[in-house]
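Researcher: Here's the sequence for the chain we discussed earlier.
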Amino acid sequence: MRKIKTLTLLIILCLLLTGCPDKRQLENLGIINARGIDIEDQNEIKTNFVIFQFEEQSQDITKVVSGTGGTPTGAVNNANYESNFLLELGKIQLDLYGLEAAKKGIAPYLDMLNRNPNTPDTMYLALSKTTAEDVLKMNEQDISMNIGQYLHDVIEESSTSKKHFPKMTLQKFMRFYGDVGRDPILPIFEVLDGKPKITSIGVFQDDKYVGDLPIHDRELFNLNFGRVKEEWMEFSIPSRPFQNGLSKLNDDDIHLTIDIIRNKSDIKLVNKEALEFDHSFKLEVRLIDISEHENLNIEDTKIQKKIEKEVGKKLRSRYEKLLNELQDFDSDALGYGEIYRQKKRDQKLTNQEWRKLYPDIDVTYTVDIKFIGHGEIF
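Model: Thanks. This is the structure I predict for it:
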C-alpha cells in the first residue's frame, strides 16, 4: 500500500512540474503507463492501454482499456469510449508490440510518441512472443504491481544486473532506424509460469521484425556495443588440448565461467572494394568456476594460456555463427554498415545500397583473452 501511495505521489508531482496547458484535472485523466499494439483482421490496430486512474470511488489505481482504429490516434480515441477518463500518453513507460504488428513495421506507431515532448527518456520498447494483449491482460494475481511498470522494471533490471540485456529506448531505436548501417534489436517477452519473462532477442530490419535469436546471444551484443563490467560468460572447451596437464583425461568438455573485468571492441574496414572487415575483441577476465579442477592445475601459466586460446576460439566461433544468422535475416544489428558508411566519404551511402552489399561482407574475428586472476573454484 505504501508503494502505491508513493507511486501516486510521484505521478502527481510529475504532472504538476511539467504543467498542463488546458488545466485538465487529474481526476479526469487516465495516465497511460504502457501501450500494447496488435494487428487484427483487415489490418485494424488493436491497442491496449495500462492506465493510472485517480477516481475516488475506485479501489484499483490501475486498469487496462482497449481501443481499435486505423491509426494509433484513432485507437486512443476509440479507447476513450471504454473509459470515463481522458487518456493521456505523456507518461508512458513501455511500448509493447505483438509479433504480427512488429512484422509490418513499428515506426508509424512511434511517430506520435517521438513528437510528444512529455515522452520520458526512460521509455522502453519490447515485443511479445504472441500478442501484446496476452501480456498486458495476463492474470494480475501473479503480479504485485501495475503490469506496465512491472515490464519496465524487468527490462531495467535485466540491463543493470549480470544479465545485461541491451535495453532499447525510443530515442535509441529511432536513431538506429534513421541511420544507415545499423539495425535495432528488442527484448521479447513470453509468459512462463504465470509471469512475463524475457526469453529471446527480436531482430529488426529497419523498423520491421524479421526473426529472433536465443537469449544468450545478448552477451555478444553487449561486447560489441561497448564496455561490459561484471558480466559472467560460460564456455565449454575440449579437454584434448590439456591432455598433458591432466592426470586423468576423459572425452568430456571442460566447463568454465569467466567474469569480464574489461573489454574493448574495434571494427575496421580493411578492404572497401572486397567488403572485408576486421573485428577484434580484447577481454581481461577472471576465472570464476571450472570443472576438472582436481586434475587441472590452473596456477600453471601454460595451462592458463591454453584456456585463453580455447575460450577465444569458442567466442570467435559464436560471432561467426551470429553473423551468418544476421545475414540470413538481412539485419545489420552488429553495425558493420555504420563503419562502411564512415569510410565511404566520396558519396552518401543509401539504405538500399547497403542492403545489397551486406550479404556479401566478410568479417575476420580476432579474440584476445587475458586472465588477470581467478576466484573460488567450486
